[in-house]
Amino acid sequence: MARLYLVRHGHAAAAYGDDPDPGLSDNGRAQAVDMAVKLAALGPLPILVSPLRRCRETALPLEHRWEVEAVVEDAVAEVPSPEPDGRQRVAWLRRTMKRHWVGVEPALRSWRDQVAARLMQCTENTVVVSHFVAINAAVSVATGDDRVIGFHPNNCSVTVLETTPDGLKLVELGDEAETQVLV
Question: Is pTM, for the whole model, over 0.85?
Answer without folding.
Answer: yes
